[in-house]
Amino acid sequence: MKKRIFTLALVLITMLSIIPFASAETAPTFTFQDVPANHPHRRAIEFCARNDFVRGHTATRFDPDGRLTREQFALIWARTLRARMHEFNDVQRVTSEADNAIILMQALRHIEGVSHTHFSRRSHITREQALTIAYRAYIPGVNGQNAAAQFPDFASISDWARGPISAVKHQGLLHGMFSGNELRPLQDITRGELCQLIYNIMREEYRVTISTTFGGAVTANRTNARPGDTVTLTVSAISGMRLVPGSVRFNGEATTGSYPTFTFIMPHRDVTVTAEFEQINPLVSIAVTTPPTTATFTVGQNLNLAGMVVTATYADNTTQAVTAHITTAPAAGSVLNTVGTIPVTISYTELGITRTTTQLITVNPAPPPAP
Asked: Closest Cα to residue 104, out of 171, 194, 16, 185?
């Protein structure tokens, strides 16, 4: 099931006119020689270029490690919203595309100035600033469960950015953005990192479903995931059961890992996770080792199996008398209406394995009435 992240901000934006921006930059054909196939942000850059969010400096140069000014960031962010100011002929327009973007972003309260009177368009934008803007635009009000505290350099995050960055991290929007464990919040964000952020926000999510299993349980660390995300599965077997090797699969494909933790990379489709469990010492057979106290009945009497002992035999040749989970046909207590030697079928089920045996009883005709 596909899902996208929508917010009130996007609803407001779609009420504005939707047109492509004009620019002196190169059209979004992915021929950038400075973004090799193994570049960590290659897929995100391709996505942003294809959608005309972030454009190359030339037809062959993208500059993925280049820093972004506040003006450039505002312009790119406005492109992701696919909107500009207005189409009214009797209202003065701002001719600069960048000025349009800055005004729009400030009006939406996505981007603020460095003061009440100065935007500082040539200053570079930092990671914590960019992530805070992403929070305001796409997930305002989301509680991030203080997820930013997981960064070793949490103390260097500005107080005003900790809540937004926690929300962005909690929503999984930092996936693949930065190398290493540190956030480095005051470091300038790069063009490639911004592409990854946009890609994380806009790419689709798919559902992770756990198939019903017998003998154990499987849980996933998420119910929805985006293509390329790592999904972690935790497997547990109930007492007397074990996981069948190689049986933990997603859409029939093998996972990686070993009991009890397995992982897979989320594909571009919904996933169903399956697993199989087997008995460690499975039930092999059952037998009546002590017959019922009463083995001869008269037509019209009720079947009474009191005193009967059923013994189970297992794969390791151990035995055990069993009482629970036993059924009989005919059932104990039922009225016997057939004369002759009657087989009573006895069934015992243990951990999904059922074995049967029989016990013969005799049913005699009813005596003739007294003269």
From this structure: 16
